[in-house]
Structure to design on (592 residues):
């Protein structure tokens, strides 16, 4: 309970609308969470996994029609359509509130409303922000307890303040036709209904920490970005920090938890993870840009995660983890997913709940785990979690890295000439669709700063905010901006770069550039490495391949420029002139 007037007034209104039978405040204690786990197991909402092999681990299955974020049902309800911009779905706030109120009306009758006070970022950090999520799902409570800091300590931190994000989630009947994930940025309000899938209902994550926070950042002079944060330690024990943004399916979690190649490990290089998905960035008193990870856990995609591809992520899932929509190995009541190992369980329960013979089921062309099945794991479980993870002041950022999946266009790495050019590089980020997703293969999807589904206001104004942030930092203090592409292909369609741990070699060039230690070639698109400056010791890559990885094909780039022009046209006069200037410069450089 609380004496906070703003919280009480808001809750009274929500309770009158949803009419729960009971209200339970989440205090964050282990006893309360344990009681909720037991209740969820008793009702079948969760399955307790093998507690010897996976202590504290549970399993949850969502409805078959409720397995991913729903971008077409996600709205940014700013007072005017212009403020939401051409990329976001928009509806007038009054209209949307009325529409949703009708859905929420009585939606929690016979159900319990859980009240989750939570902090994005360490409690009390100057970076941190508070939210309160009302939900009728124990699964949401238990996930939020992993992904955020929750409970009484957060209410104490809030005190009498009305500065909190008001989050309402009702599971209702998970009807996809009436599913809505709605942000009202001006009201610091999020309403989610008819889903029980993570990204739509763990409202601290995409809805708050990116959509609402990007809007708050624009108003208050900071940034909320879809970026991992890693620390790279050199043999002298110095750690430098990098933020990196990639669209989905580009290996963000893998890069955040990278294990250096053997030869660099032996030299004493290490990588420390601060975050795998979201960064909140502020200019510090020394004029440098600092980042925190506002989350406390990892909500990672399970398929493809193995000891080989991401040892650290897998290790993080070995205790106190919730698995969603993976397969169950009935032989020992543990979990399995495609890519974990080569031994699918014979006695398996696939993600929809049917008992199957795993190898036979897969041979028939089925998947045991849903491709978007997830683990929710506490960050503290990760063997390479940074000692700075809880630092309330954040970590100073040397480099910002943008990336995409481009078969022919982007080279392995290049550096933007300055902040303005870097903003343009981020704004032109794109990825080509893979065979893994439905739809045509090789189609370019533009995804500025990997924020396409997550920016809480007009994307053109968001570019403007990036430019403004650059103006507030001296050029020698601002992070240097880079673009990488781990996915370049040769004419036969083979990947030319080994990726994974070997991406460290590119990070080393990036940090050498930041420290003024490496030279570069001034090319049409930006500063490129001299091939000899990328360390390929012990790699099965010849000089020609490395050269090819670093080439810029003028015709491919001019085609991309045409696509960029078309993309930017939708923003009309709102597009900052600096972006148009950079686009014109790029085109002229390519035609030189
Ligand atoms: C995520 C996403 O789940 O970006 O992190 O979709
Ligand atoms: Mn993400």
């Amino acid at each position: 309970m609380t004496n906070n007037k703003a919280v009480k007034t808001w809750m009274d209104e929500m309770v009158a609308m949803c009419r729960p039978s009971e209200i339970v405040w989440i205090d964050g204690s282990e006893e309360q969470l344990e009681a909720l786990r037991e209740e969820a197991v008793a009702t079948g909402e969760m399955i307790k996994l093998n507690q010897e092999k996976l202590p504290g681990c549970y399993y949850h299955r969502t409805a078959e029609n409720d397995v991913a974020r729903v971008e077409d049902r996600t709205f940014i309800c700013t007072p005017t359509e212009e403020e939401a911009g051409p990329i976001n779905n928009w509806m007038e706030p009054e209209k949307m509130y009325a529409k949703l109120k009708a859905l929420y009306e009585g939606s929690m009758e016979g159900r319990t409303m859980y009240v989750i006070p939570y902090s994005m970022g360490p409690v009390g950090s100057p970076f941190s922000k508070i939210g309160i999520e009302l939900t009728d799902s124990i699964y949401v409570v238990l996930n939020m307890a992993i992904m955020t800091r929750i409970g009484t300590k957060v209410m104490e931190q809030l005190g009498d303040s009305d500065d909190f994000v008001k989050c309402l989630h009702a599971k209702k009947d998970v009807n996809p036709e009436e599913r809505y994930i709605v942000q009202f940025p001006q009201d610091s309000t999020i309403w989610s209904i008819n889903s029980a899938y993570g990204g739509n209902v763990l409202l601290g994550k995409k809805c708050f920490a990116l959509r609402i926070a990007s809007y708050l950042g624009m108003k208050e002079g900071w940034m909320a970005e879809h970026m991992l944060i890693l620390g790279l330690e050199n043999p002298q024990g110095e750690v430098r920090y990098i933020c990196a943004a990639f669209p989905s399916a580009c290996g963000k979690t893998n890069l955040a938890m990278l294990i250096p190649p053997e030869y660099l490990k032996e030299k004493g290089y290490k990588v420390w993870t601060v975050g795998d998905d979201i960064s909140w960035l502020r200019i510090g008193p020394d004029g440098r840009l600092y980042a925190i990870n506002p989350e406390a856990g990892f909500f990672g995609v399970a398929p493809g995660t193995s000891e080989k591809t991401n040892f650290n992520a897998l290790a993080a899932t070995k205790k106190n983890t919730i698995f969603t929509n993976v397969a169950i190995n009935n032989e020992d009541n543990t979990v399995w997913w495609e890519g974990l190992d080569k031994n699918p369980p014979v006695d398996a329960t696939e993600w929809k709940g049917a008992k199957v013979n795993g190898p036979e089921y897969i041979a028939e062309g089925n998947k045991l785990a849903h491709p978007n099945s997830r683990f929710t794991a506490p960050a503290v479980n990760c063997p390479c979690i940074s000692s700075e993870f809880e630092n309330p002041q954040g970590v100073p950022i040397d480099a910002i890295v943008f990336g995409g999946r481009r078969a022919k266009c982007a080279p392995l790495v290049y550096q933007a000439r300055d902040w303005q050019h870097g903003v343009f590089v981020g704004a032109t980020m794109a990825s080509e669709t893979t065979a893994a997703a439905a739809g045509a293969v090789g189609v370019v999807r533009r995804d500025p700063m990997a924020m396409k589904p997550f920016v809480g206001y007009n994307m053109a104004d968001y570019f403007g905010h990036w430019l403004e942030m650059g103006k507030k930092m001296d050029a020698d203090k601002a992070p240097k901006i880079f673009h990488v592409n781990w996915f370049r292909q040769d004419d036969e369609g083979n990947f030319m770069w080994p990726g994974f741990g070997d991406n460290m070699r590119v990070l080393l060039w990036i940090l050498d550039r930041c420290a003024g230690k490496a030279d570069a070639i001034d090319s049409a698109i930006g500063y490129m490495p001299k091939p000899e400056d990328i360390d390929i010791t012990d790699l099965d890559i010849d000089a020609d391949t490395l050269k090819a990885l670093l080439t810029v094909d003028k015709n491919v780039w001019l085609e991309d420029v045409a696509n960029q022009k078309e993309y930017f046209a939708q923003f009309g006069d709102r597009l900052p002139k600096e972006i148009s200037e950079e686009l014109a410069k790029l085109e002229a450089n390519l035609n030189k």
About this structure: The radius of gyration is 24 Å.
